[in-house]
Amino acid sequence: MWIGFFVGSAAGNMLPVLWGGDAISVSGFLLSMIGGIAGICLAYRWVR
Q: CA quadruple 32, 33, 37, 40: dihedral positive or negative?
């Protein structure tokens, strides 16, 4: 589940960079948090 958290948060943090934003911004933080939660959920379903 930690791997899901790290991969999800990294992917979420890279999304603002794709549209020209900054990784260290409010949108980067929020998308990183959403990606981390999604990664945990996917890892939980995969392990279960």
A: positive
How many domains in the chain? 1
Question: Which residues lie below 8 Å from residue 22, measured CB to CB, with a gap of 6+?
Answer: 16, 28
pLDDT tens string 1-48: 888 899 999 998 888 888 888 878 888 899 999 999 999 999 999 988
User: What is the residue range of 25's domain?
Assistant: 2-47
Burial label, 11 (beta-carbon count in 10 A; 0-12, 13-18, 19+): middle
> Are the C-beta atoms of 15 and 31 separated by less than 8 Å?
yes
